[in-house]
Amino acid sequence: MKSLQLKVGAVVGAFVLVTVLVGGGLAWNPVQEGNIEVVKEWGASTGETLEPGANVIVPIKQSTAVVPVRPQEYTMANEKQEGAEARDDSVEVLTNDGVSVNVDVTIRYRVNKTEAATFYDEYKDVSQAEARLIRPTTQDVLRTEGGDIDTTEIYTGAGQKQMAAAVKKALETEAVGSGLIIEAVQIRNIKLPSQYADAVEKKEVEKQNIEKKQNSIQVAKAEAERKRVQAKGEAEANEIVAESLKDNPELIKIRYIEALNQDNNTIYVGAGSQAGITLTKDVDEENKS
User: Fold this and answer.
1) What does the alpha-carbon distance between residue 76 and residue 141 come to, in Å, rounded to a whole number?
2) Against a cut of 0.90, is the pTM above it?
3) Contact by Cβ (8 Å): 102, 89
């Protein structure tokens, strides 16, 4: 009897030990960096989240769902290797002037880690967010916005900024309250029909040449105006000097004498009221000294 009790006790002890070990293993729930895990009870979200590092959960009753909170990118592009789809996935847009263009676009977004539970309740994972929100909204806005823009504007940049801004605004509006943050929208490339692309490039070159000529004309006009102002200033200065000499005949004599001191070979003859007076410099006398 005693032997039987010992055997039963050993079996019970072993069972308890295994249960503790298994239970302890299930309870250990480490979370990797760059992720948040949403705690679920019997499969339903509790709203509780686990940060990166060591965490424990109640075995069997609880489980977790991983939500990545690192920055994400979703690209729709003409090149197969660039986009999320293994095919030409660019967005076809019919412009205001009736030209069909293909737009490559990238959306950068992330899940707000403080709202990871809300995001999980709404989308479960990022692939669902891309399929239900990012992809259809981006396509619709590009086609609507691009339909109001001429092809030249789209191709040369101004239209691209307008479309990117419209897509970002629409995505931000749709994502309110979902835990999704839209960080940026980039129009990567615009593919035009080859003949139209050549015509647009030629037109753009002509436009740049016209702008260069206009700039050259403006520079020439500015230079002409500068010279006119300079000439006017010099004329006014000469007029002032002439008037001062007219009113100060003694100043003329002083200028004559100063000139004689500077030039050994010049003979000055007075003019006007000084007519007939020859002013010379005695070079011999200077040499003697």
Assistant:
1) 14
2) no
3) no
